[in-house]
């Protein structure tokens, strides 16, 4: 068999594969695959009707439903998200060895204000807050509690917050304030003032050490007071101690704030935790009061705070403010200058 014959046999063999052809305008062309005519062909299939008879929705409709659902979830949790979480900076049940602290960035306005006073030695190396157990002895803490109870026994607010200020003599009585020393000039003895001064000096030195400032650049300032908080309906704005505030705005003389707790949360009262409001990281820090526990902090906007309402019992504390402004310093308690001021 010749080569031509072999080739002819291959083309005519029944096992050989030939491409189907189609005629178009008299010309034969290979027949290609037929176009897909299923329901998901975007070119040839119309979108099915969205009815209630069980017809499936198309991809675009499902995408819109999913996106709308996600938006709904985001909106819901944005509106109904819980309040800031809390974590204890110091629990009542623990005794801190030394101090526990948390640093923050100092607001520029805070540092500029101190610079403008010409007292750069009073500018802190860092801002923040700290809490300490053990700096103030139990003996001195109990002595201060007695001083607070003695003064506040002569008056008291009609609402849930009462104060007595040993420097000015201001004492809550009903909706007003009276001068404790004019009504009871011998209510306190020299030993009472000696305890108060000793504790004040200890706190001042401790604040200066922590924030790395010169103790001589720091001055005791007003208002400085004992507070008594109890579960009574507020009668005026002074009784509403639970509102969030900034000490530098409430007490403009303050640059540093300290609080010494004179009763125990959970034993003498319920509620009354001190809360630092840290909106930037949605995690508030709380201090649970404990007899002799000292907390202190820079008084600027970096330390927004409030006190939770008392639900039972009575909470006593001593607030002491310190300033970098020498012109806002107050005289030493018990001194001749102090006696002249309170008896005016």
Question: Could you characterize what this model shows?
Answer:
The model has no long low-confidence stretch (mean pLDDT 85). The protein starts with a helix and ends with a helix. A hairpin with a 1-residue loop joins strand 8 and strand 9 (176-179). Strands 4, 5, 7, 10, 11, 12, 15 and 17 form an eight-stranded antiparallel beta sheet that branches. A four-stranded mixed beta sheet has the order 3-14-13-16, with no helix packed on it. It has a three-stranded mixed beta sheet with strand order 6-8-9. The chain contains eight helices and 17 strands. 27% of the residues lie in helices and 27% in strands. It is globular, with a radius of gyration of 39 Å. The chain has a single domain (86-342), classed as q2cbj1_9rhob like domain (Jelly Rolls, Sandwich), CATH 2.60.120.620. Helix 4 (138-152) packs across helix 6. With 344 residues, the chain is an alpha+beta fold. It has helices spanning 3-12, 59-80, 108-116, 138-152, 180-183, 190-211, 247-250, 336-342; strands spanning 21-24, 27-30, 85-90, 98-104, 127-133, 156-157, 161-164, 170-174, 176-179, 219-230, 256-261, 269-271, 274-276, 283-287, 294-298, 305-307, 310-323.
């Amino acid at each position: 068999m010749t080569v031509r014959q072999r080739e002819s046999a291959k083309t005519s063999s029944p096992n050989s594969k030939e491409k189907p052809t189609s005629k178009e305008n008299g010309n034969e062309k290979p027949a290609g695959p037929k176009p897909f005519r299923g329901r998901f062909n975007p070119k040839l299939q119309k979108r099915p009707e969205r009815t209630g008879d069980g017809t499936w929705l198309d991809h675009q409709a499902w995408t819109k439903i999913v996106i709308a659902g996600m938006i709904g979830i985001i909106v819901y949790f944005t509106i109904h998200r819980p309040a800031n979480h809390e974590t204890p900076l110091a629990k009542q049940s623990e005794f801190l060895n030394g101090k526990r602290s948390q640093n923050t960035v100092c607001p520029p306005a805070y540092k500029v204000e101190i610079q403008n006073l010409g007292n750069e030695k009073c500018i802190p190396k860092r801002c923040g807050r700290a809490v300490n157990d053990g700096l103030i002895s139990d003996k001195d803490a109990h002595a201060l509690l007695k001083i607070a109870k003695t003064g506040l026994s002569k008056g008291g607010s009609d609402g849930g917050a009462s104060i007595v200020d040993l420097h000015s003599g201001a004492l809550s009585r009903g909706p007003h304030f009276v001068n404790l020393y004019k009504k009871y000039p011998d209510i306190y003895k020299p030993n009472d003032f000696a305890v108060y001064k000793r504790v004040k000096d200890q706190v001042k030195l401790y604040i200066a050490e922590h924030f790395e400032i010169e103790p001589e650049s720091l001055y005791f300032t007003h208002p400085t007071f004992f507070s008594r908080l109890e579960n009574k309906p507020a009668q005026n704005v002074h009784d509403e101690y639970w509102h969030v505030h900034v000490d530098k705005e409430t007490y403009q003389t303050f640059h540093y704030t300290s609080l010494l707790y004179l009763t125990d949360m959970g034993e003498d009262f319920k509620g009354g935790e001190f809360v630092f409001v840290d909106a930037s990281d949605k995690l508030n820090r709380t201090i649970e009061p404990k007899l002799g526990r000292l907390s202190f902090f820079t008084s600027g906007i970096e330390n927004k705070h409030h006190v939770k309402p008392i639900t039972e019992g009575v909470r006593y504390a001593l607030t002491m403010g310190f300033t970098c402004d020498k012109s806002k310093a107050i005289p030493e308690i018990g001194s001749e200058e102090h006696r002249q001021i309170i008896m005016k």
